């Protein structure tokens, strides 16, 4: 579980974005825009909800790893993983199910490790979906403008 949680830390997503800029620029752009939007939105919501992490509210829950920030809602690791999975659903459907599997495991690991409540992870899934849709729309807009120039 620690391994899968660490997969969601961001370095692998960054490398994936860079890789796709060389494979398919449009997909690289969509992945990058989606992750940037996801970070902005999840940090915004974390500061609105200021929800304490489960291990802080419940003595019987032990944190296994240190969280990247103070607040629990929504799960940023889950949001990032689902942003990637949903973008692949739209642009590279063959990659959707492998990345969906990884995203589900990352979300579960965050609960298992005492860092998030199930509702934090569900909110992360929703945030990933919203971020991916916005990224696809913005990428399409950028590609349309680029074709006019």
SS element count, helices: 7
Shape: elongated
User: What is the CATH H-level superfamily?
Assistant: Phosphatidic acid phosphatase type 2/haloperoxidase
Largest sheet: none
Order of helices and strands: HHHHHHH
Helical content band:
over 70%
Number of strands: 0
User: If you average the pLDDT, what whole number results?
Assistant: 91
Gap between N and C termini, in Å?
48 Å
CATH class: Mainly Alpha
* Percentage of β-strand residues: under 5%
CATH architecture name: Up-down Bundle
- Classify the fold: give the CATH topology: Vanadium-containing Chloroperoxidase, domain 1
Structural class: mainly alpha
List the helices and strands and how they pair.
Layout: H1 2-7, H2 11-23, H3 25-49, H4 54-57, H5 76-91, H6 93-112, H7 118-148
Helix pairs in contact: 2-3, 3-5, 3-7, 5-6, 5-7, 6-7
Which short descriptors sum up this protein?
149 residues, mainly alpha, Vanadium-containing Chloroperoxidase, domain 1, 7 helices, 0% strand
Describe the protein.
The chain is mostly helical and about 150 residues long. The chain has one domain: Vanadium-containing Chloroperoxidase, domain 1. Helix content is about 75%, strand content about 0%. It is built from 7 helices and no strands. It has helices at about 1-5, 10-25, 25-50, 55, 75-90, 95-110, 120-149. α3 (about 25-50) runs antiparallel to α5 (about 75-90), α5 packs antiparallel against α6 (about 95-110) and α6 (about 95-110) runs antiparallel to α7. About 40% of the residues are buried.
């Amino acid at each position: 579980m620690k391994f899968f949680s660490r997969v969601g830390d961001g370095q692998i997503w960054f490398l994936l974005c860079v890789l796709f800029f060389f494979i398919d620029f449009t997909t690289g752009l969509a992945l990058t825009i989606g992750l940037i939007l996801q970070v902005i939105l999840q940090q915004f919501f974390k500061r609105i909800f200021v929800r304490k992490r489960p291990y802080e509210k419940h003595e019987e829950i032990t944190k296994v790893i240190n969280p990247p920030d103070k607040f629990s809602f929504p799960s940023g690791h889950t949001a990032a993983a689902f942003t990637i999975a949903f973008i692949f659903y739209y642009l590279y459907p063959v990659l959707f199910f492998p990345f969906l599997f990884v995203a589900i495991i990352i979300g579960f690991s965050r609960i298992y490790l005492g860092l998030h409540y199930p509702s934090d992870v569900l909110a992360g899934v929703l945030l990933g979906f919203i971020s991916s849709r916005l990224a696809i729309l913005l990428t399409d807009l950028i590609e349309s403008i680029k074709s006019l120039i």
